[in-house]
Amino acid sequence: MIRIMKYGELPNEEIFARSMPTVNVADKVAEILRNVRERGDAALREYTERFDHASPESLIVTPDEMQEALETIRTTDPEFMGVLENAAANIRKFHSRQVRNSFIINDEPGIVMGQKVIPVDRAGLYVPGGTASYPSTVLMDVIPAKIAGVKEVILTTPPGRDGKINPAILAAASIAGADRIVKAGGAQAIAALAFGTESVPRVDKIVGPGNAYVAEAKRQVYGTVAIDMIAGPSEILVAADGKSNPVWLAADLLSQAEHDKVASAVLVTDSMELAEKVQEELERQIPMLERSEIARESIDRNGKIIVAENLRTVIDIANEIAPEHLELCVDNPFDLLDSIRHAGSIFLGRHCPEALGDYLAGPNHTLPTQGTARFSSPLSVDDFVKKTQYTYYTKEALARAAKDVAVFAQKEGLTGHARSATIRTEE
Q1: Which of 199, 103, 96 is nearest to 149 (CA)?
Q2: 293: annotated active-site residue
Q3: Per the confidence metrics, is the pTM higher than 0.85?
């Protein structure tokens, strides 16, 4: 049963304690990375057989496989195909507003400065498999990359035992515009993207969530390639006043608890009565879920209800926790929006469940976890571009600036720097 905690009556260390994965996979991941780096496709195939129990004929999805998957979805589930297309349109609309423009400054005689915004040449996108299939992650990862102008988007995801990728994943990849799809998962897929193999070209940046092995692999290849973030277990924090519906709140908490046994579901409220009702409602709803065993362990081990004396304190607690997903269940959520400083994605009002953001609304669902919303952001178009800058001075413009450059350089003891500027102004 989820625990109810009264803020101010327990130490803050207990109130704000987070469940942290304890498994240490660093050495195992390092060995996988080394093996794939040295042996390429052969190692990738071996790990796919060992971990996914699959022996795909080709490590890359063929055009025929893609066409077969599209026909399967269109024939057997046309409604889902329509939902995919609707979600993709919403995601494109939102992320298109994130595009940054290059700029140029030329407001002094003889001086030109500017910044170019350039997409990475090749991006690798990891889509989890295992206990569930996530076509939503395909849309959320691929679409911003294509909007950014990435030349080649490579998606990798674990195959089924038949050596094929789930048709829903392939349909989403087609709609989103992925250029190549690799049948591999886990740390071995991250290794293939980071170092390249015979079938998988090396990428410049790797994004996307995954299990502990994927997270550790991203950590270890960082520097060889760029990464988006080290994603931890899924989190939701529901901030609610006493007028909220306990049935709805329990359902929202369980929407994240069913992800993983180490997922975190937290309710913060100013009403003890609501806290007790949600506690009861969770017990009623958990057995209804198909993934009830996962949700049960998540709620019992990592779930909590924090009761504060007023709504202002509720918001302070939410900011301290800095959750991945934050639901603000009050009548006038926009009155409190500016008070929220740390959250991956905010869902405003009583009729905006977090699941909207997972699938349909448009904002990205690849979000900072484990309190990293204090300093990091959701996946966006920005993750797929880099910036370079340029400077141009005429002879006359340099003559005006050379003395100042020399003064600064000499203050730092770098006379060579000073000389490189002043030598151009000597007769």
Answers
A1: 96
A2: no
A3: yes
Quick one: tokens of 92? 């494109």
Cβ atoms of 249 and 354 closer than 8 Å: no
End-to-end Cα distance, the chain: 84
Residue 21 has what pLDDT? 63
Of residues 258, 324, 327, 354, which has the active-site annotation? 324
* Distances from the Cα of 148 to the Cα of 142, 235, 383, angstroms: 10, 28, 9
Question: Using one digit for the tens of pLDDT, what is the confidence trace for 202-223?
Answer: 999 999 998 889 999 999 999 9
Q: Is the distance from CB of 167 to CB of 73 less than 8 angstroms?
A: yes
Q: Could you report the per-residue pLDDT of 244-280, keeping only the tens digit for each?
A: 999 999 999 999 999 989 999 999 999 999 999 999 9
Helix (H, G, I), strand (E, B) or coil at 221: helix
> Residue holding tokens 């297309």?
85
Return the closest-CA partner of residue 349 out of 363, 364, 334, 361: 334
Q: Pick the catalytic residue from 325, 327, 354, 365.
A: 325
Specify whether the CB–CB gap between 366 and 378 falls below 8 A.
Answer: yes
Residue 228: predicted pLDDT: 95
In angstroms, rounded to a whole number, what is the distance separating the alpha carbons of residues 308 and 316? 10
Tokens of 38: 């040295």
Q: Is 342 assigned a catalytic role?
A: no
Q: Which residue has the tokens 């990091």?
A: 376
| Residue 23 φ/ψ, nearest 5 degrees | -70, 135
Q: What is the pLDDT of residue 19?
A: 73
Cα(7)–Cα(172) distance, integer angstroms = 44
